[in-house]
Design a protein that fits this description.
Structural class: mainly alpha
Distance between the termini: 138 Å
Number of strands: 4
Largest sheet: 2 strands, antiparallel
Length: about 625
């Protein structure tokens, strides 16, 4: 023991005599033990300190120990620990920017004023724990240097823990690292934000805050807090330090900064102005913080950091509440729509476009919406028609909600159809709008949500609306001629049929010339069906009775009775349902346009045929 004590005193006294122990912790011992000496010398110093402590413990229990010698050894140990404390503080401070890579860019901060000041911190892109970083002076710090600094700190921590100075070591660490973490989070712009300030922000400002928070939070979790966790566990993982000590140390360093950071999204969600388009921003935020929560739970896993986990859950719940509030307002907007505007030509109602655009955009967040709507919209199943979904299909909360929104929309479309005075146009309006909804559902995530049978069921409804349109608009024209082709009619009856057809056809053509079917496939199907029904009877009667009428020609009778050849009727019908927005171009003569060589749109072409139709019917 005596030899061990003398050897330790000799080594430590040499270092003690050359150090500057009169200064504050801001003064690094000169010469620094870890900067100017080799690893062997450092290990020798640490071993001597531990040996001195061990010798003191034996002297205390020894009956023959000299009190003077014991006091001298204890004084030397205190001076040695004081030196190590300063070395520990100096290493922590000197390596504050690269014990883990927590450098950042001003452009990534949450602060409002990004144009003032400058930062020596590097970019967050491409950083990884203990990877290459910038020390603030443009000098690269590599993995080996970072590892060396951490090893030196651990040597000191282990030594101070084993010699009874663990509390002092932990105090230095907590105070130093806490200030570093707080400074880092503050520079990133994470600071307490007032309710009144949030309420004054517009949607664009809120979105900017949310986007920046996500970027900052990812970096803080993956780099700062994870780095502190690893650093703390690394330094205090020896047998001298119990696990609770590590957790206590980490909690005191990071808890307050983490609480400030993780409460921000909840405050933004709770106090910002709600509007339908904010749902996308809230859902992005919900996805982002939910993804981070897994890492947060692992990093802040102890009872001491439970408030951090609770703060994250509170923010997630507030964001979810915000989304539910926005979706509820959206649904209310659809239900309260009381516009009496009649869409010209039976086109797509603006509300249908708005609702389907909105629902389609929400499909980027189906996972989040399923969680958010899980409890609040569970009763929607009873509101939907029986067998609305595929047999045996268990509808998810988002599927139920989507189906309900589309059903509300279609109910509104049904109500709007009653604003049309013409029954045929009313059915055309229904067909157009349901077909538009189908076009947005088919082949999208909406279809997978609603099930395989949803689209076929509603396609059948579209076709029924088309049939109803044909009956309401064209039955009276088709029924002019007898169903029985073989039955013979007297000439007077023939003339009456043609005159009635001319009048009815003119009236319906003039009325329907500006109606349209938006979907080209549906339009072609309706046109084909109509043309077939009309031309089948008209051509048969025309071919059968035209020769007979010629035999009984009277002046002007044929022109008055038969105004159109079958080809002309077919041409007129081909103009229908194209609507006023067609791109088709046909040449007109100079006499008709007033300008030789001018091309006319499909609208002009149809107007030309209307004039021709009127001239036909005026020749009596």
């Amino acid at each position: 023991m005596e030899e061990t004590l003398d050897s330790a005193v000799k080594i430590l006294s040499q270092w003690q005599s050359s150090s500057n122990d009169s200064g504050s912790f801001d003064d690094c011992p000169k010469p620094s033990l870890f900067e100017r000496h080799g690893r062997d010398e450092v290990l020798e110093f640490i071993a001597a300190a531990k040996a001195l402590h061990s010798a003191i413990q034996k002297l205390i229990t020894s009956d023959s120990a000299s009190s003077k010698k014991l006091a001298s050894a204890q004084n030397l140990l205190r001076a040695t620990m004081k030196r190590l404390s300063r070395e520990f503080f100096s290493l922590l401070k000197a390596n504050k920017d690269h014990l883990y890579p927590h450098a950042y860019s001003r452009s990534d901060s949450l602060s409002d004023d990004e144009s003032t000041g400058s930062s020596t911190y590097g970019s967050t892109d491409g950083l990884s724990l203990l990877g290459e970083n910038n020390n603030g002076n443009g000098v690269g710090v590599g993995v080996e240097e970072v590892s060396s600094a951490m090893d030196d700190l651990k040597l000191i921590a282990d030594c101070m823990m084993s010699t009874g100075y663990g509390k002092k070591c932990l105090k230095i660490y907590r105070i130093t690292r806490r200030s570093i973490v707080e400074e880092s989070i503050l520079h990133l712009g994470a600071r307490k934000i007032k309710k009144s300030r949030i309420q004054k922000m517009d949607g664009e400002k809120i979105q900017m805050k949310m986007n920046k928070w996500l970027k900052v939070a990812r970096f803080a979790v993956k780099q700062i807090f994870l780095g502190e966790k690893i650093l703390c566990d690394h330094l205090f993982s020896s047998s001298y330090a119990l696990p609770p000590m590590q957790e206590t140390c980490f909690a005191e360093v990071c808890k307050d900064s983490a609480l400030i950071l993780f409460k921000i999204p909840g405050k933004l969600a709770k106090h910002s102005k709600k509007s339908p388009d904010m749902a996308y921003r809230f859902l992005d935020l919900y996805d982002g913080i939910s993804d981070l929560s897994l890492d947060i739970d692992l990093i802040f896993c102890s009872d001491l950091t439970a408030p951090v986990r609770s703060g994250v859950k509170l923010s997630i719940n507030r964001i979810a509440d915000g989304v539910r509030s926005i979706l509820s307002e959206f649904e209310s907007h659809v239900q309260k729509d009381a516009s009496k505007v009649v869409v010209p030509g039976g086109g797509v109602y603006p509300l249908a476009r708005y609702v389907m655009d909105y629902l389609t955009s929400l499909m980027n967040h189906t996972g989040a919406l399923d969680k958010i709507l899980d409890e609040s919209h569970g009763n929607l199943q009873s509101c939907l028609p029986e067998n609305y979904f595929d047999d045996g299909m268990t509808a998810s909360p988002i599927a139920l909600w989507l189906a309900w929104q589309i059903l509300l929309l279609l109910c509104k479309v049904d109500a709007k159809s009653e604003l049309y005075k013409d029954g045929a146009l009313s059915y055309l309006f229904l067909a157009n709008n349901l077909q538009y909804v189908l076009s947005r559902v088919s082949g999208s995530k909406l279809e997978s949500m609603l099930g395989e049978t949803w689209v076929p069921k509603h396609k059948a409804k579209v076709m029924q609306y088309a049939v109803n349109y044909e009956k309401a608009g064209w039955d009276k024209i088709i029924s002019v001629f007898p169903k029985d082709h073989m039955a013979n009619m007297p000439l007077d009856k023939v003339r009456e049929c043609f005159k009635k057809f001319n009048a009815e056809f003119e009236d319906e053509y003039n009325k329907q010339i500006d109606w349209f079917v938006l979907d080209p496939t549906l339009r072609d199907e309706i046109k084909s069906s109509l043309t077939k029904q009309v031309m089948e009877r008209y051509r048969y009667v025309y071919d059968k009775y035209m020769p007979l009428l010629k035999k009984h020609r009277e002046k002007g009778v044929i022109q008055t009775v038969i105004k159109f050849t079958p080809e002309e009727v077919e041409n007129y019908m081909s103009d229908l349902l194209d609507g006023p927005d067609t791109d088709e171009v046909v040449p007109l003569t100079g006499e008709e346009t007033g300008q030789p060589g001018v091309e006319a749109t499909g609208v002009q072409r149809r107007r030309k045929r209307i004039r021709q139709l009127v001239r036909h019917l005026r020749v009596l």
